[in-house]
């Protein structure tokens, strides 16, 4: 999905899009990123780069994490490695000051291969990256494996699985899309997990597929170790409460 963020220093909105260049000819071997800017979130957007530099093209699913004047891209790369080789691997790169391309500073690959749909967030002093196995429009959904680090560029450590049961089936019945913090009357915001429920639309139209939204709760911190999200629990309905 496209990602859009406000760049305060440049006083403009920055848009990142993953797209296939001439898919009939190249398929995923030319999966790249386009960046654009606009004065308002509704546009019009002016394309700045049609192949924004990142270290490990072709690139797939991604998320943009911002913190003050800094921004980072976490993305799935190496989509077309030969059969039997490691592919669909995750890494984080710092963006240039204008947020339109990579600076070349990288975490290196971390976690398992054959993964996608990453999200990245910060809670307290720790950074979290969540992703799981590839689930290209799959109806069954996937999980969410938590990775933690003291800095966006790592080192990243694989932690717990919060989105799948012990048998591997998906708690959420969806593939991860985003995690956001909803301001709450309590001291901490409510962390909300969002996922796409592929193939769920009664009329079969992909844009009509449903979503899953579930709250994420964190266990208390133990010493200097990062507090980890608890496994998600399916809820037919729940309330965010007053903001």
Break the fold down into its secondary structure elements and pairings.
Blueprint: E1 3-7, E2 12-20, H1 23-26, E3 31-38, E4 46-49, E5 59-67, E6 70-77, E7 89-95, E8 102-106, E9 115-123, E10 126-133, E11 145-149, E12 157-161, E13 175-182, E14 190-197, E15 210-216
Antiparallel strand pairs: 1-2, 2-3, 3-4, 5-6, 6-7, 7-8, 9-10, 10-11, 11-12, 13-14, 14-15
Entry summary:
The protein has 243 residues and is mainly beta. The protein is built from one helix and 15 strands; from the N terminus they run ββαβββββββββββββ. A four-stranded antiparallel sheet has the order 1-2-3-4, with no helix packed on it. The protein has a four-stranded antiparallel sheet with strand order 5-6-7-8, with no helix packed on it.
Shape: globular
Total DSSP helices: 1
Q: Strand order across the biggest sheet?
A: 1-2-3-4
Order of helices and strands: EEHEEEEEEEEEEEEE
DSSP summary, beta strand count:
15
Largest sheet: 4 strands, antiparallel
Q: State the helicity in percent bands.
A: under 10%
Notes on the protein architecture:
- With 243 residues, the protein is an all-beta fold.
- It is built from one helix and 15 strands, in the order E-E-H-E-E-E-E-E-E-E-E-E-E-E-E-E.
- Strand 13 (175-182) and strand 14 (190-197) form a beta hairpin.
- It starts with a strand and ends in a 27-residue tail after the last strand.
List keywords for this structure.
243 residues, mainly beta, 4-stranded antiparallel sheet, globular
